[in-house]
Each structure stands twice: as structure tokens, then as C-alpha cells.
């Protein structure tokens, strides 16, 4: 019955809709666990999204697993537009819009604040230089309490940076570089410590990996992160599987968070069910703990009042909404956040990148020839069907993946604007735009590969050894 499209959803009560969504969610999980055919899983996911939209239309509330509707008042009998069908959580990002997720609506839904011109100008005044292109172009678009970080910095009070990586595969793709490129810039302009969490424990819990393979991926991913150019004297990279067993400060904070978050709350935030393993249910506390400086006594000399700034993609925000709620109750400052947009797959912004699909993105191991082939063959185009139509009507940069990638990686603002104008007017053809992207990414990836070759196992060990950094606290 859960999949029946003939049932009139409008005739169901909010509680009945809630039960339908829950039932369909369980079906999706079962299909994925059973490695069902992709088209069958996709159909089940579409039905789940449709049911969730019907639930929100009826109740005015987002569906939260384990939390039935608080108020059974019918607020809207209208239909929901297709472009509203965005679904974002820490594991799933789906949209039906070729332009990608509607980030303005996501800001409203998550309750964060938009990074506006005033904040960007204030950052520029604080650091005395031009803001990073990710800020100038809205790639980092949302924040929580960045104004407090700037207050602290302007008053000569220190803070620290925390970001992370879930090592689910040996090879990282260019999208994985985004938080590290930006975090490196933040570290350099503010001159602050940085901790990088490798959640190999999470990947063991969620993926079909052995614990040894998850740890191996963590160390391989660490090499790519180090190759971004982080300063070993200011950066600590740690594997959860390693660090949790050696740091009493880290584990104490995990336990404090665990005590102050109920099972019902974690189900509501993350959609966990009674059939999920207890490791998944307890994991959010592990991702929360690096937000507190006392988790790193060797760096901060045991101080508990150093505020944390977390650059991350917006899908990770649920972890830190939970963290910010808990922080005052355990005597810790709330972490501040900077949220980035999602990096689009080559096939389009409404498609999710997958490490199992080598054609969904450009990987850091790709050769110049592979980069050229992937972009020419797979990069979704905003151009017209024929050259004549393209010359007459122009291309659409809002959906063109090559232009989207250039927005991330082309440093020159004037050049980017010239390309946009030329493509929109029809002067620049799709093949020519792809050529610009190829010529931008090939040297970038080649340079990264050369730096990675210089990263030895000994260097990884040094970065991942708990130690004092080049700061006094």
C-alpha cells in the first residue's frame, strides 16, 4: 500500500501520513540494504520524497522520524511545486531542480543566517585583504555566529578551526577539496589552530567496509588533505579509531553530549529507527566533541573556553545544531559555522556524486586525458541543441556544470564574468566553455598529484600525532 499512487493522500489524516512516511522510509532502507536494482530504489525514494512533501503540506511541519505531528491542524490544501522537492540530510541530498538546491529556502528551514555583503565586508576589514572567491561568489553562503568569531578576533581573542572528512573511498574527488581549500585560507588569514577529524568509525558503521579498510582509507585521505598545503605546526589530523582511545578529554566530551541528548531527539534529528545499530545512534556525539577545545588538551592546555569555527557543507548542519543545543548545558561555548553549497555532479546539480561512479566527478587521481574525456562526454550542458539556436538564444549558466565548476576553481572574477556574458549571449559555445574548464582543472589536479607524491607515511604520522601546536594557550 505504501507505494500505491492511486491512494488520495489528501484524504489521510496527519497521523496516517506520518505512518505512511515511516513505512516508506523503512522500505527504502530495506531496498538499499538488500542491494535492490537502482531503478527500484530510485522509485521508492521518489515516493518517500512525495510522501514527505504531502506531510509538510498538510501539517506545516517537516517529517521527523519517531516524532508524530505536534499539531493536527490542516494548514494547506494546495499543491507543492516540483522545485520545492529538496531533501537534505547528512547522508542524502536530492533536488528535482537542474539549478540545484534552493539555498535560500534551506537557510529558512535550518534557521541559519545568510552571508551577506555586510558580513563579507567585515571579514575583509578584519583580515586586511580580499575575501576568498568562495565568499565573493556565495559558495559559502550561510553561517551561525560568524559575527561572534569576528568579535573575538577583533578583541585579540583566539579561536580554532574544525573540519572533517568521512573516508569512504581511497580516492577523493575535486568536490571533497572545497572545505579544505577554504579552511586552509581561513587558517592562514586568521592564523589559528586547525583540527581535522577523519570519521573512519562512521564509515565502518554506515558502509560495507571492514574496520581495517575504513582506517586505511582515513590514512590515504589524510595524504590528499596534507597535499592541500596545511602547516604541520598548526594542524592536527586525527582518526576517530586512533584518537578516541588516547584522549581522555575527547572521550569525556563525547560522554557529556551523550548524556544530554535523548534517543527520541537523535531519532528526530537524524531519522534513526529502532532497527539502526547503536553505533549509529551514538555517533553524533563523536562528531560533536571536536567542537570543544577541551577535547584537545595537548593543543589548548586544557582550556575549555576557546570558541570553534566549523567550515562544512550545509548537509552537516544537523550534527552541529544538536551540538549548539547541548553546549551551554555542559558548560561549553557554542561552535560557529560557515556553510557551503553542494558541489554538483558532472551530470547536473540534481544528481548526486558517487565514489562508485567514476564518471560522476573529477577524481584527484585522474590523468589529464581522463579529465578531458569526462568533461567533454559527461559534463551537463546549458547550451542549445544546435549551434544556430545557441548563437541565437545563448546558453544557461545556471544549469551548465562546466560553468558551475569554473565558479569554484577559476580565481579571476573578471574572466569568470566574461565567460558568463559570452556564453549567455551565444558568442561562446559549450565545447569552448568545456575547453576552458579542462585547461583550468588539468594543471590544478596535476599540481595536487605532485604535492601528494611528496607526502610520506612519516609525514602522515607526524600530522596525526597528538602534540602541542605553534600556539600558546
Describe, in plain words, how this protein is organized in 3D.
The chain has 473 residues and is an alpha/beta fold. It has helices at 14-33, 38-59, 103-110, 117-127, 133-136, 146-154, 174-190, 200-206, 211-226, 240-243, 248-260, 263-270, 278-288, 297-300, 317-326, 368-378, 387-393, 401-409, 413-425, 430-453, 457-463; strands at residues 87-88, 93-94, 113-114, 140-144, 159-165, 194-198, 235-239, 307-313, 336-340. The protein has a seven-stranded mixed sheet with strand order 3-4-9-8-5-6-7, with helices on both faces. It has a two-stranded antiparallel ribbon with strand order 1-2. β1 (87-88) and β2 (93-94) form a beta hairpin. It is globular, with a radius of gyration of 23 Å. The protein starts with 13 loop residues before the first helix and ends in a 10-residue tail after the last helix. Residues 1-7 and 70-83 have low confidence and may be disordered. GO terms for molecular function: ATP binding; tryptophan-tRNA ligase activity.
Amino acid at each position: 500500500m505504501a507505494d500505491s499512487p492511486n491512494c488520495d493522500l489528501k484524504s489521510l489524516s496527519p497521523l496516517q501520513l506520518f505512518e505512511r512516511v515511516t513505512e516508506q522510509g523503512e522500505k527504502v532502507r530495506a531496498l538499499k540494504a538488500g542491494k535492490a536494482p537502482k531503478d527500484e530504489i530510485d522509485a521508492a525514494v521518489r515516493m518517500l520524497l512525495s510522501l514527505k512533501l504531502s506531510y509538510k503540506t498538510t501539517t506545516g511541519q517537516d517529517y521527523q522520524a519517531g516524532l508524530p505531528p505536534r499539531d493536527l491542524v490542516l494548514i494547506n490544501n494546495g499543491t507543492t511545486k516540483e522545485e520545492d522537492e529538496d531533501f537534505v540530510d547528512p547522508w542524502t541530498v536530492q533536488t528535482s531542480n537542474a539549478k540545484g538546491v534552493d539555498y535560500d529556502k534551506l537557510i529558512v528551514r535550518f534557521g541559519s543566517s545568510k552571508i551577506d555583503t555586510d558580513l563579507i565586508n567585515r571579514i575583509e576589514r578584519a583580515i586586511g585583504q580580499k575575501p576568498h572567491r568562495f565568499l565573493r561568489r556565495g559558495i559559502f553562503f550561510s553561517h551561525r555566529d560568524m559575527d561572534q568569531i569576528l568579535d573575538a578576533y577583533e578583541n585579540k581573542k583566539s579561536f580554532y578551526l574544525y573540519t572533517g572528512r568521512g573516508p569512504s573511498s581511497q580516492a577523493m574527488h575535486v568536490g571533497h577539496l572545497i572545505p579544505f581549500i577554504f579552511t586552509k585560507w581561513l587558517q592562514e588569514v586568521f592564523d589559528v589552530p586547525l583540527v581535522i577529524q577523519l570519521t573512519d568509525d562512521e564509515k565502518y558503521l554506515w558502509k560495507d567496509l571492514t574496520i581495517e579498510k575504513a582506517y586505511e582509507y582515513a590514512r590515504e585521505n589524510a595524504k590528499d588533505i596534507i597535499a592541500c598545503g596545511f602547516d604541520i605546526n598548526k594542524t592536527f589530523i586525527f582518526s576517530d579509531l586512533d584518537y578516541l582511545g588516547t584522549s581522555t578529554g575527547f572521550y569525556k566530551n563525547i560522554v557529556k553530549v551523550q548524556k544530554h541528548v535523548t534517543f527520541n531527539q537523535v531519532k528526530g534529528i537524524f531519522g534513526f529507527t529502532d532497527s539502526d545499530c547503536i553505533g549509529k545512534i551514538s555517533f553524533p556525539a563523536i562528531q560533536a566533541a571536536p567542537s570543544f577545545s577541551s577535547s584537545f588538551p595537548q593543543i589548548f592546555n586544557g582550556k575549555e573556553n576557546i570558541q570553534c569555527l566549523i567550515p562544512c557543507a550545509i548537509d552537516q548542519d544537523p550534527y552541529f545544531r544538536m551540538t549548539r543545543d547541548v553546549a551551554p548545558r555542559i558548560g561549553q561555548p557554542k561552535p560557529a559555522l560557515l556553510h557551503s553549497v553542494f558541489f554538483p555532479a558532472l551530470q547536473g546539480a540534481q544528481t548526486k556524486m558517487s565514489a562508485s561512479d567514476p564518471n560522476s566527478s573529477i577524481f584527484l587521481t585522474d590523468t589529464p586525458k581522463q579529465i578531458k574525456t569526462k568533461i567533454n562526454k559527461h559534463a551537463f550542458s546549458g547550451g542549445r541543441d544546435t549551434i544556430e539556436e545557441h548563437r541565437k538564444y545563448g546558453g544557461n549558466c545556471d544549469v551548465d556544470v562546466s560553468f558551475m565548476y569554473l565558479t569554484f576553481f577559476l580565481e579571476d572574477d573578471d574572466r569568470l564574468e566574461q565567460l558568463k556574458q559570452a556564453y549567455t549571449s551565444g558568442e561562446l559555445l559549450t565545447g569552448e566553455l568545456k575547453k576552458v574548464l579542462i585547461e583550468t582543472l588539468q594543471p590544478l589536479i596535476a599540481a595536487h598529484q605532485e604535492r601528494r607524491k611528496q607526502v610520506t607515511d612519516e609525514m602522515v604520522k607526524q600530522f596525526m600525532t597528538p602534540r602541542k601546536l605553534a600556539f600558546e594557550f
